[in-house]
Amino acid sequence: MNPDVMQAPVAAIKPHPMTLHGDTRQDNYYWLNDPENPEVIQYLEAENAYTDAVMAPTKALQEALFHEMKGRIKENDESVPVKVGSYYYYSKYIEGGEYPLYCRKKESLEAEEEIMLDGNEMAKDLPYFSIGGYEVSDNEQILAFGVDTVSRRNYTLKFKNLVTGEILADEIPNTEGGAYAWASDNQTIFYMIRDQQTLLASTVYRHVLGTDISTDVLVYTEEDPQFYMGLGRMKSKKYIVSASEQNGVSTEYRLLDASNPTGEFVTFYPREHGLEYAVEHFQDKFYIRTNAQDAINFKLMEVSEGESNNMANWKEVIPHREDTYLDGMEVFSNHLVLQERRNALIHIRIINQSTKAEHYIQFDETAYDAGISSNPDFETNTLRYAYTSLSTPSSTFDYDMDSRNKTLMKEQQVLGEFNKEDYVSERLFATARDGVKVPISIVYKKGFKRDGSQPLLQYAYGSYGYSIDPYFSAARLTLLNRGFAFAIAHIRGGQEMGRQWYEDGKLLKKLNTFHDFIDVSEYLIQEKWTSKDKLFANGGSAGGLLMGAVTNMRPDLYKGILAAVPFVDVVTTMLDESIPLTTGEWEEWGNPKQKEYYEYMKSYSPVDNVEAKDYPNMLVTTGLHDSQVQYFEPAKWVAKLRALKTNNNLLLFHIDMEAGHGGASGRFKRFHDVALEYAFMLNLVGINE
Asked: How many helices (H) and strands (E) does the chain have?
């Protein structure tokens, strides 16, 4: 690959000074914010043309990689059916199909298949397509589903009569996908509308089938733009829930009896700064997973129906533990299942509701990911859970909570010559600069030499308390089979090691996130897993911020950086309340209108810290329609890097002119993007086949 194959695009410099707290930042590329400006589109297209030209020598390699990855995917594939009411529901893919079909069978898996939605048919001739969840009415006759054809996550809510096959005339645009809740009358549905300025769902409406949507009733408005909203129906089916959550700070649930759709939502417990909770209904009481009373790792409490408004009525069921984070719960008539996180691993705990006897499901590998799966049936003694690791394909198990027997229902089939025994995964710990031990999950193919001679891709996210557990990827085999190791750095800002792990990687402790990643890189080099000229780093979205920060801090450590939809203009974005998601993020990053946060953010914001110096090889990717990290953030970053970098290393920018935050739609199309990333890395270490 030759960066001089053609002139790299040069974005026009149009100074735009921004002054706050007596400090002026100069943004020469602020003009790129306007997607309606033909000059902006022209610049983005020039960047794509340059990337295509530089990567042209790898075209054959990219094609080979694409077909190799696609060739591992079982084209005819279906999910394990889940029984809800009298039907088994499942999704499936057919040969050549990019999109799923959503199906069901009545009473028995031998019954005739009903195709509720055919994604391939619905997506015909559309550049982008996504079904955003569905809900079936209690009488099992009406399907509510959302469709997005732009990739802005604005879903049009539609309805289908599953008896006649007719699509109903009712059609509601700009809803939050998947957040639909039927009342028990089979006629009334609740949905959320997204504010088109902020792209946050802020209102809940009630719709009755067959009526004009202009007459739909507004039942709740979230006035605080820092709160995200959710909507759904509890597993017991008794209550519809409208919830508001300020990420990592505060929660408020509002409940409505599903048999009384025109009634009023009642607040379970009013929001308090610092109080978080999640609620499940069981018989005549509620279980509450909460951080109340300084339970930073959360504990389990219970309260009788109708008494939740007074916390004095809440009784402790499982106390707070310093070493264990209570991650989630699933309630059955005979069992209570808890998902816990300890020492960067998931544990699943089963408690018998009547005898209180308890045990944990046993997992064998040193690093893995497990989780409670879809369990809509309240009366069963069978728990469905998911399991995977860096070397074990995604697996679905049914577990008898009484006999403790587990049955493998499905393991993701990997076509070609795949044998999981050929790969080794390990759990390592690197010591960060402040003495904290940072977990690392690593995988490689047997025969990998730990002498510093082999390439390694290091990945992390590290924000919002979102944990990146060790998961299997069939596409990743393409790298492992060519001598790469792959490592996930479980850095602070995630929640792998409990809630404090998250608290220590946000707001005025955000630098820990970047330092942890760099210190893991140093450890992997020191322990001869790789070397500076073979180490690559990858992250997306808030993980793209991580890439931008470490690139500025330690450009010498990496051969190449892959930054996907990167959040890199932190100060400017957090000051602009018109940008989607900004206000809801202040509890994560801080509000730069306060001088302390402004100065701290500015110290690491990638765009603000680009300097005249050598940078590693870089591939930056984005989508023009991204609603979460707007395309202009990476565009400004790349333009500034081009103007200031002092070496000839590659700087490539690829913009999907049809996609948003999640990239291309369709199960195979996305492998073209992965092939581009892999070819970029492989070529840089001299692997061209």
From this structure: 12, 38
Residue 110 corresponds to which tokens in the numbers above? 């031998």
Question: Are 623 and 661 spatial neighbours (Cβ–Cβ below 8 Å)?
Answer: yes
Cβ atoms < 10 Å from Cβ of 312:
7
What is the band of 683 on the pLDDT scale with cuts at 50, 70, 90? very high
| C-alpha span between 189 and 155 (Å, rounded) | 15
Q: How far is CA 148 from CA 77, 132, 309, 537, 672, in A?
A: 24, 7, 38, 32, 22
Identify the burial level of 421 via C-beta atoms within 10 angstroms of its C-beta, where 0-12 means exposed, 13-18 middle and 19 or more buried: exposed
Q: Which of 626, 654, 656, 665 is catalytic?
A: 626
296: left (phi over 0), alpha (psi -120 to 50) or beta: alpha
Place of tokens 């076509």: 415
What whole-number distance in Å separates Cα of residue 243 and Cα of residue 534?
Answer: 47
Instruction: Give the relative orientation of helices 59-71 and 670-684 as an angle to the nearest 10 degrees.
Output: 130
Per-residue model confidence as pLDDT tens digits over 562-593 = 999 999 999 999 998 877 667 778 889 999 99
Is 661 designated active site?
Answer: yes
**What's the DSSP call for residue 151?**
S
Task: Determine which one of 515, 625, 654, 661 is catalytic.
Answer: 661
Identity of the amino acid at 253: Y
> Residue 522 and residue 517: Cα distance in Å, rounded?
9
Report the first-to-last Cα separation within the chain, whole angstroms: 14
Which two structure tokens, joined as six digits, stand for 499?
């809630």
Q: What residues contact 283, with CB distance under 8 A and at least 6 apart? A: none
Catalytic residue of the set 395, 541, 627, 665: 541
Q: What is the pLDDT of residues 82-119, one digit of tens each?
A: 999 999 999 999 988 889 999 999 999 999 999 999 99
Lookup: tokens for 665: 């739609």
CB-hemisphere CA count at 13 Å for 309? 5
Distances (CA, A) of 247 to 95, 198, 275, 574, 583: 40, 16, 11, 16, 11
- The token pair that represents 156 in the structure block: 């049009």
506 Cβ contact list (under 8 Å, min separation 6):
248, 463, 493, 588, 589
The structure's pTM equals: 0.88
